[in-house]
């Protein structure tokens, strides 16, 4: 089989799957918004505080995943940095709501710290690799600036 035909078919299947996933996430997002609105209007917030905050956390997570699917269609890829940002914010939100278990808090804090360290290392390595890729070009430009009489046009 022709490799381009397989790649094109795979791309179409991936696009359709992402579209279905995006529509489902938008549906769940609006469902959670509806549930949140009814909870706020029809329940005693002092009694059901944890249920309301759990629904708020779910709503924000669905919103972030909808943004990820939008990013896929706009940029034709999903950045690894965005997944790390979502992980960090999800763990921070969870830490704000569920903080009764001390060991759980420490594990979540360690996971947040680990994700931040990995994000910093990832961004540094991308910058370093980009610098290495353009180092040869910079050397050529620097040589041309320092030796204008030896540069061929």
Automatic annotation (TrEMBL):
Transmembrane segments: 12-30, 50-68, 80-97, 103-122
GO biological process terms held by the UniProt record: cellular response to phosphate starvation
Record localization: Cell inner membrane
GO cellular component: plasma membrane
Signal sequence interval, chain numbering: none
UniProt keyword annotations, A-Z: Cell membrane, Membrane, Transmembrane, Transmembrane helix
Family membership: Belongs to the PsiE family.
Protein name: Protein PsiE
Species, as recorded: Weissella cibaria
